[in-house]
Amino acid sequence: MSFQAYLDNIEAKTGKSAEDLKALAVDKGLATPDGLAPGIKPGAIIEWLKADFDLGHGHAMAIVAYLKGKRD
Question: How many domains does one find in the chain?
Answer without folding.
Answer: 1
